[in-house]
Amino acid sequence: MIQIAVLGYGTIGSGVVEVLKTNYDSIAKRSGQEIQVKYVLDLREFPGDPIQKILVHDFTTILHDPDVEVIVETMGGTNPAYTFVKQALEAGKSVCTSNKELVAKYGPELLEIARLHNRNFLFEASVGGGIPIIRPLNQCLTADEIYEITGILNGTTNYMLTKMAKEGASFDAVLKEAQALGYAERNPSADVDGFDACRKIAILASLAFGENVNYEDIYTEGITKITDRDFLYAKAMGTAIKLFGTCRKTEGEPEQFFASVCPVMIGNDHPLFGVEGVLNGILVRGNVIGDVMFYGSGAGKLPTASAVVADVVDAVKHLNTNIMTFWSSKPLSLADIEKVQNQFFVRVKKYEADHVQSLFGNVAKITVPELPEEFAFVTEPMTEEAFANAAGQLDGLLGRIRIGH
Ligand code: HSE
After folding, report:
1. pTM of this prediction?
2. Which CATH number describes the domain made up of 136-297?
């Protein structure tokens, strides 16, 4: 019998307790022993919930209990999660977390502490909810040189963009729905402004390329400027609008990487075109394997809890063996966004027609009957800098979305 503790009895923490209870026998078979939750840590009380019997408010009770071998951290945020996780690893306990903020900020340091103590720091649920992606990157795609990883990494925004596209729903109404369904962060700005996807692509890129991607260096743009008007064009063009997190090797020497989070317009030939609702999709491109896709529930209580519990099983199976994870603290060199080539979907007021021709060449006009006072066009590939210079000269600029390839 293995004793574990769960830190934080919110959406994911309560999901972990539920999954461990629901699948108690099959999980015991897979881990080789029964797993029992000895403590749940939370500042709140839960009268009427059976959890109340094992609820503690002081982390040191868990830290100093030698029976606790594995700690699940589902509190979110970095304070006090970082201190608790570090102390737990230093005390020789393995930690499984869903906390992307913690992993993006302190991943290499916590992995090193786990390694020094022959324990494990596991974080499958930090990216892609229930989708296995951390373990595949760490264990299955190791024969490849990965040159690109691109994903729809935030369930809330994908749910919102899908509802806006399909039902013409308003931004605020769909955000409320995503919150009610338990997808959104406590502060939904983390979702809609792209910060959550930014932390996730930083984690994936660090694992894919082996060096640390500082999420603060990633160009990040959320979905708040996407309007119902953009979806009218998307529908007419047969395209979809998605929030992509991307990191890829740039062409040529010296070797550099480019990373961004931003909305993109994609055609129906893109592998991530059909990823809708709360689902996430992650496309990995390697020099030997070619393209691989990972797809599934990207947020929500039970899918995320499923990934956390799978980590608990792995931690139990490797109690005194560190599973090596390739993520050095050395910074990965990221290219300046200004120099990156992109194509842009652009909406302008009708009177800009001649100006558009002189700035962007002979681009085809796209019109929709609902918007007679404007038109749109797609640029040729150009650097971000060149686009910003040209677009800055258009008084009648209404919006722009990068084209995803
Ligand atoms: N708010 C996050 C999302 C939760 O919507 O993807 C899962 O990390």
Report:
1. 0.97
2. 3.30.360.10
